[in-house]
Amino acid sequence: MPKVSDDRLAARRREILDGARHCFAEYGYDGATVKRIEESTGLSRGAIFHHFRDKEALFLALAQEDAERMADVAAEQGLVQVMRDMLARPQDFDWLGTRLEIARKLRTDTSFRTAWLAHSADVEAATLRRLERGRQAGRLRDDVDTDVLVKYLDLVLDGLITRLASGQPTDDLHAVLDLVEESVRVER
């Protein structure tokens, strides 16, 4: 039997992740049955679970991938920019519904919570580093601890995600994000 190249394995894994992301976003964790994941990816159960131990491992891989993407943007441009990107290009954030499923699983599944918290720490650490750099440069207020600012921005992010995922209007949210950004900056 010929050996499958690493590139082909990576491409297959990418196909599975992309199809599964759409499926989880559309149906939620419980509604994303293995049959629906097969239909969404166009692959068999065996092909999918050759790459992922089970449905939860697939879901966690998606959650981790999204956390890493957010951490990269947060480290470079700030968490408010992540939120601005969500408003500008919601089609690029088909994982918003998945984020709501993450919140539900965090509450009900201790093994998932342990794995997720280890990876979501990347986003928080990136945000904290960016805030510290901003504070050192004199751009951010220094009367509030940076850990508090990170939690504040994370709460705003969760609220934005809930609003977007539930299909509520977003017309006024650019002004809200301006207010959020102003609230963490030094008054000029």
UniProtKB/TrEMBL annotation:
Q: Which UniProt keywords apply?
A: DNA-binding
HTH tetR-type domain location, by residue?
Answer: 10-70
UniProt-listed Pfam families: TetR_N
Q: Which domain of life is it from?
A: Bacteria
Query: InterPro entries recorded for this chain?
Result: DNA-bd_HTH_TetR-type_CS (IPR023772), Homeodomain-like_sf (IPR009057), HTH-type_TetR-like_transc_reg (IPR050109), HTH_TetR (IPR001647), Tet_transcr_reg_TetR-rel_C_sf (IPR036271)
Span-the-membrane segments of this chain are none
- What ranges are recorded for DNA binding? 33-52
Q: Does the keyword DNA-binding apply?
A: yes
Q: Which PANTHER family match?
A: HTH-TYPE TRANSCRIPTIONAL REGULATOR RUTR, HTH-TYPE TRANSCRIPTIONAL REPRESSOR RV1474C
Instruction: Report the protein name in the record.
Output: Helix-turn-helix domain-containing protein
Q: What is the lineage of its organism?
A: Bacteria, Bacillati, Actinomycetota, Actinomycetes, Mycobacteriales
